[in-house]
Amino acid sequence: MEYVTAVPHPRSEPAFVRSGRRSLALALLSGALGAAVALLATRQRWSEGTASVAGGAFPLTAKGSDVTGVPAALAIVGLAALVAVFAVRRSGRVLVAVLLALSGAGTVAAALFGAYDSSALDDKAAEASGDTSATVDALSHTGWPYVAAVGGALILLAGLLALRYGRLWPGMSGRYERDGTPRPRRAKPVDPDRPEDMWKALDRGEDPTGPDPT
């Protein structure tokens, strides 16, 4: 004798829901990590060299922030845009996602341009030697500019994910419908034999003498 179970089989999530969750997690991870990597890289030594002074060769170094402040600034903008994606909807979310992607692309470009820049060390050489026309000698660069570029690429990835899947992501607050209007609040039943319930209903702007909404 066969038995039929009444327990329903769990339905699997739609594919677009799974895609939205995966893309959201990846965008948050890549955006936050990219901003942190770019900010860390700009605080490291990007280039080094020497300046000719009376006592011989004077060693000089330049951090990423000495070379250019653009990667750090754009990383902060990208981080703010990543948070703002969840505070806006529809066309606003698209615009913020574009800003996020542009912040990442700008960080990559600025870091790569700064990888071969010598102006920061030339200024330090002129200051150290007292000669405004002096330039740095034995110039060399480290790999930190490329680390900053990797951070920018991660921010760019977060922006592209927001552009592609942002419409599937939840908003910052669930109290509003998709059209931006507040959801109507359901009135609580009031017991006429309890005066405190009637006062609470009045405080909420409800009519305790009206019909039961249920």
TrEMBL record:
Q: Which UniProt keywords apply?
A: Membrane, Transmembrane, Transmembrane helix
Kindly indicate whether the keyword Magnesium belongs to this entry: no
Bias (Basic and acidic residues) ranges: 175-207
Report residue spans for region: Disordered: 174-214
Top-level taxon in the UniProt lineage:
Bacteria
Q: Which Pfam families match?
A: Trp_oprn_chp (PF09534)
Q: Which residues cross the membrane?
A: 24-42, 69-88, 95-116, 143-163
Descriptive protein name: TIGR02234 family membrane protein
